[in-house]
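Q: what does this look like with histidyl-adenosine monophosphate bound?
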Amino acid sequence: MRGCLDAYGYAEIRTPMFEDTELFVRGVGTGTDIVAKEMYTFNDRKGRSLTLRPEGTAPVVRAWLENNLGAEPGVCRLQYLGPMFRYDRPQAGRYREFFQVGGEAIGSAVPELDVEIIDVMMTMLGELGLRDLAVEINSVGHPGCRAVYERTLAAALVVTADELCDTCRERARTNPLRVFDCKSPSCRRVIERLPLLRDSLCADCKAHHAAVLAGLDALGISYRENPRLVRGLDYYTRTAFEVHYPPLGAQSALGGGGRYDGLVEACGGPPTPAVGFSSGIERVLVALESQPATAGAPRIWIAPLGDAARRQALVLARDLRRVATTEVDLSSRALKAQLRSADRAGARIAVLLGDAELDARAATVRDLRSGEQIQAPWPEVAAAAARLLAATDGKAT
Ligand code: HAM
């Protein structure tokens, strides 16, 4: 994991295991479960309130400010790995002390930085051998459009107050967005009917979100838009995302993150945009252990015809492996025989490379179930395969 973050230029930072309580109250937000219920808070010998860090982003921002890391122009990319502490009911995949690995990129508002953050996380998990990860993404807007939405939401919650749990009735007054974190069945039913934040987004936030999705498409990272994803921390602005490994059930989130353009300022610094992610290491381990033995079976089969096509197949395979397990047929047989092998191996997508494709600097991407196929230029083959896979998995947006 560290090596992957190194390769993207994220330098290691180590922050202390505890911080002033105030940092998390201000950064993560008073209405969040983390601050309201899950912090290990104690007084030191001088009566100062300290808290074992429940997460790494606010401490990284505090250290960035204190050490004047913003003096260097450009984006500051930092990675961390260490224990975090949350007082929650322990269960499989949820512990009171757990380890997170994370990356934070401070100093730019461009949507491509959001894309890089999701890309580094997916690459990191992919290199560990995890497949079939589901990226969920949403935009929670900037404080301006969120304020408009929160008024709409608060009004909708007044009407449904009878169906809400006690906590959510309180949240409706103080921090209505947090209602989306509630797990109680009656609140979940209300949540299904609530107005959506995306309908209140301003033009700039919409454009930012569209650019993030376009960047993910360009990298062949498939995702599902989840308009109800708000994440349990108050600091997010615009992009919020989670990466799930669905077989893990209730604790399927291997990680998450998003943009937090207001956090540096909330911690006493100058207005500074930033975006980051973190991933729970224990959950990643559980996911790796639970992967079916067929995890190594190819989902994409490249069928090249001829020497030049075989060479190009190896190049395309590198991109395709970021999407799913990919095998290059190097048996030098006729196309029909290669496709029979693809079928026997259980592959879902075939990428065909013959003379016509080489001339066009393209490949034919075929869905082996429906027979549907398209021709994609080489740089777009991975994205085309990702779209077909998402469609056949029923995960398409
Ligand atoms: P988070 O979603 O609260 O985000 O936590 C990130 C990941 O840590 C979760 O997806 C999960 O894998 C793991 N995790 C959280 N709580 C536990 C627990 N009790 N036991 C085991 N694993 C757990 C954050 O912490 C943000 N700081 C992420 C971020 C970075 N946003 C921007 N930059």
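The radius of gyration is 23 Å. The chain has a mean pLDDT of 93.
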